[in-house]
Amino acid sequence: MIIDRDGNITVITQEHPSIKDFVKDIEKSYDKFKNNHLVVKLSSLGKIALEDVVEFLLLSNNHRAEKKSFVLVSEKVDLDKVPVEIVVVPTMQEALDIIEMEDIERDLGI
């Protein structure tokens, strides 16, 4: 797991071949970046199944409940099948755009 910080955004890059192990690693280290917006890059994997995306659902819901953004980045996910409760985008720029939009919505109380 590679962790990069840029201001109030933490980018976590996946290195493990197992999504379940990756999610467990994020949960173990969560206190280090719980106050930041999180972007999780899954670009090192091949095709990502819906079940793999759902592994992040609890983590995403908990993080978003704390008024922080949680975005998965992968161009290998069928976006039409992703639950609306989790944000998945194909590029890093789109992840940053989502965070910016969600910040504006939070500021406006939406």
How would you describe the overall organization of this protein?
By secondary structure, the chain is an alpha/beta fold. The chain has a single domain, classed as Transcription Regulator spoIIAA, CATH 3.30.750. It has four helices and five strands; from the N terminus they run ββαβααββα. It has helices at residues 19-28, 50-54, 57-65, 92-108; strands at 2-6, 9-13, 37-41, 70-73, 87-89. A five-stranded mixed β-sheet has the order 1-2-3-4-5. Strand 2 (9-13), helix 1 (19-28) and strand 3 form a beta-alpha-beta unit.
CATH topology title: Transcription Regulator spoIIAA
- The SSE string, one letter per element, is EEHEHHEEH
Number of helices: 4
Mean pLDDT: 89
Tell me what portion of residues adopts beta-strand conformation: 15-25%
Backbone shape: globular
Binned, the helix content reads: 25-40%
Output the structural class: alpha/beta
- Write down the CATH class: Alpha Beta
The number of strands is 5
Low-confidence segments: none
- Any idea what the CATH architecture is? 2-Layer Sandwich
CATH superfamily assignment? STAS domain
